Amino acid sequence: MEQAGEIKRNELLAHARTLVTALEDGAQQQEVEQLLGMLAESHQSLLFNRVGSITRQLHESLTNLPIDTSLIQLAEAELPDAKDRLNYVVSLTEQSAHSTLAAVEEAMPYAEKLVDRSGKLQQRLLGVAEENSDNPELCKVIQQMDTYLNSLQADGDKVQQKLTDILMAQEFQDLTGQLINRVIHMVQEVEDNLVELIRVTGVSTRTEAPAEEQTADQKKNKAIEAEGPQVPNSGNNVVNSQDEVDDLLASLGF
Amino acid sequence: MNRDMRILVVDDFSTMRRIIKNLLKDLGFTNISEADDGTTALPMLKNGDFEFVVTDWNMPGMTGIDLLREIRADGGLAHLPVLMVTAEAKREQIVEAAQAGVNGYIVKPFNAVTLKEKIERIFERIDG
After folding, report:
1. What is the average pLDDT score of chain A?
2. B19 contacts in A (CB within 8 Å)?
3. Helix crossing, B64-73 with B38-47: angle to 10°?
């Protein structure tokens, strides 16, 4: 490519010299303009050559980018998989928080009733004690019951407080969910950019990529790798409940 | 402060709406409606007789700060007390909310006592 540049430079120089000579010899306006035109043309083609050379280099670099199967795997399978898992995490935490909140909502009225009824019974007993002030044995028993009902109310209050603590503890789900959503967004951007890059370099994602050759050992080891919790409906030959596990084992004779 | 007043709780996370609803119930407020975004909240406010709004900031459709601005810009809604309960904790945001006319600002994670205090304070100012 440098050679073409050199040729253009020599052409330019030749035209320049012709122009200088013509001017020194007192050439007519027409001839001068003609020579200037030829200089301009040489300059232009010099520029075009430079741009062409840079474009060729860029194209070569792009086609030589290591867009191999692992990057394509990343864009097509692993990044979308990562997003699925993160979405699943958010959904699991949501379900879990709702379960806890439901239980708290159910338990609250019991604690409230405990406190309420104890208080009411105490009032009634007070009345009974007053009417039977001549019966010391009865008054003693009523006194004991009063003490017991006090502690019952205190316990009921305590339970209500703790239930409120459990309620408030569920707010983690909102915060963790917001954080995870931001990460999912970022993964999406990375995936989009990678897909675009693969597209630009013109590598076909399905037919041209050479199939990964696995040795027999690699295949065996891959089969017993732990995969972590399965995302539902991922179609990975996965059981969906304890019943299915039991059925599968039973069918194998366990 | 009327314990029967209609309250709208706005947050895109259903768990958070549920928590706030329960806290309000504990404080004696039982007339509570929910919305999952500023876009769904605004028509509800325009059509209903709400007297109090508790809203998040960060929501996908219309944010809480925009909802607040819409409320203050609407003749029929401008008087509504608005309490923000949000994870947004930058100074500029708090200032922005105050300038937009918010009545109270609670930062997540928060506790039940804070909610009670802020609500009481808002209505002390209004009723007083």
Report:
1. 84
2. 101, 167-168, 170-171
3. 30
The ipTM is: 0.86
Question: Do B19 and A164 make contact, defined as CB atoms within 8 angstroms?
Answer: no
- Amino acid, single-letter form, for residue A102: A
Measured between CB atoms, does B30 come within 8 Å of chain A? no
Mutate to test the interface with A, among B15, B17, B106, B111 (most CBs of A within 10 A): B15
| B112 interfacial to chain A (CB closer than 8 Å) | yes
Return the half-sphere exposure (C-beta side, CA atoms, 13 A cut-off) of residue A19. Answer: 15
Helix and strand numbers (H, E) in chain A are: 8, 0
Q: Confirm if A138 and A132 have CB atoms less than 8 A apart.
A: yes
Count Cβ atoms below 10 Å from residue A173 Cβ, excluding itself: 24
| pLDDT above 50 for A242 | yes
Instruction: With CB atoms and an 8 Å threshold, state whether B15 touches A168.
Output: no
Q: Which amino acid is at A40?
A: A
Report the greatest alpha carbon distance in chain B.
Answer: 36
CA of residue A204 relative to chain centroid, distance: 26
**What pLDDT, in 10s, does the model give residues A99-109?**
999 999 999 99
Residue A55 confidence (pLDDT) above 70: yes
pLDDT at A6: 66
